[in-house]
């Protein structure tokens, strides 16, 4: 069974919103759907991406799904707060979509595949409900693309705990680099992948705060209990590692780099 590595806490909802805001322009400058389109957003979570894609395409209609009732409630609240009226929410499993073949003009997936144990099965399910000639957009990060200065062995060990915890739960936090082959193998055509690199240093204090402190470090800190329970690290090493990661954000010479991957393909 798939397990969301970051959990469903209020702090995690805040982290997702911080992440979405920090990289909104980088990820979504070219995201848009024509008026009259029906778009399936698979794995909408707390609506961090929903509010952006719905606002950017006010003439399109969105059906946003998730398996978590708690997340769906948060997503609905986010959409209402933004006064968006072109989104409906439904509880559904991406592997068993309750829609007819070719029901949607487009499919949008963001930060979902990394958490799935059966990526191929999920893509086959999404392909089934997509019209011939329709597009699928998939956005994923790649934790292996992360590098930073100052870099310490303790910080790297804490970061790798995040990767290993997700792998042991059946996910793949390195999936960003694999978007091209997994989409091709799923039978999609005209697959185009573009890397979206986030770089932070002291000349961009707002980005350091929103992305490094509130997104990246918060994401690592969120797997502490799982990492300790799995025996990946001990308490003292964890404290040192996360302290060193925080030093990257606090240091005048600190730098941080991470790459997202955005793929668009056609059925």
Write the layout of secondary structure elements.
Blueprint: H1 10-22, H2 24-28, E1 38-42, H3 50-56, E2 61-66, H4 69-81, E3 87-91, E4 104-110, H5 119-128, E5 130-141, E6 147-149, H6 153-168, H7 179-185, E7 189-200, H8 205-221, H9 224-229, H10 235-250, E8 255-266
Helix pairs in contact: 1-8, 6-10, 8-10
Which segments are poorly predicted (pLDDT under 50) over 5 or more consecutive residues?
Answer: none
Strand % is: 15-25%
Our measurement of the CA-to-CA distance between the termini, rounded to an integer number of angstroms, reads 28 Å
Enter the CATH topology name of the domain at 10-146 and 170-200 and 258-266. Answer: Rossmann fold
Shape: globular
The CATH architecture of the domain at 10-146 and 170-200 and 258-266 can be given as: 3-Layer(aba) Sandwich
Structural class: alpha/beta
State the CATH superfamily name of the domain at 10-146 and 170-200 and 258-266: Vaccinia Virus protein VP39
> In CATH's first tier, which class of the domain at 10-146 and 170-200 and 258-266 applies?
Alpha Beta
Query: What is the C-alpha radius of gyration, as a whole number of Å?
Result: 18 Å
Helix % is 40-55%
Mean pLDDT over the full residue set: 93
């Amino acid at each position: 069974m798939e397990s969301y590595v970051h959990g469903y806490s209020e702090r995690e909802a805040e982290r997702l919103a911080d992440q979405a805001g920090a990289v909104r322009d980088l990820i979504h400058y070219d995201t848009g759907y024509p008026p009259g389109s029906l778009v399936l957003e698979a794995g909408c979570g707390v609506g961090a991406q929903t509010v952006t894609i719905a606002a950017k395409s006010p003439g399109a209609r969105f059906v946003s799904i998730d398996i978590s009732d708690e997340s769906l409630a948060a997503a609905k609240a986010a959409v209402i707060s933004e006064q968006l009226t072109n989104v409906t929410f439904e509880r559904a499993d991406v592997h068993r979509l309750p829609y007819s073949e070719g029901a949607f003009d487009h499919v949008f997936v963001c930060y979902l595949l990394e958490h799935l144990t059966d990526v191929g099965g999920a893509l086959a399910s999404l392909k089934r409900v997509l019209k011939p000639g329709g597009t699928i957009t998939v956005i994923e990060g790649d934790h292996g693309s992360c590098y930073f200065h100052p870099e310490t062995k303790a910080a790297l060990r804490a970061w790798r705990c995040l990767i290993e915890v997700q792998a042991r739960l059946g996910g793949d936090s390195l999936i960003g680099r694999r978007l091209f082959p997994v989409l091709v193998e799923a039978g999609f055509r005209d697959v185009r992948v573009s890397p979206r690199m986030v770089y932070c240093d002291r000349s961009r204090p707002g980005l350091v705060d929103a992305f490094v402190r509130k997104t990246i470090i918060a994401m690592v800190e969120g797997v502490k209990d799982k990492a300790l329970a799995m025996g990946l690290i001990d308490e003292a090493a964890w404290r040192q590692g996360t302290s060193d990661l925080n030093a990257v954000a606090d240091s005048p010479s600190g730098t941080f780099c991470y790459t997202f991957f955005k793929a668009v393909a056609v059925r």
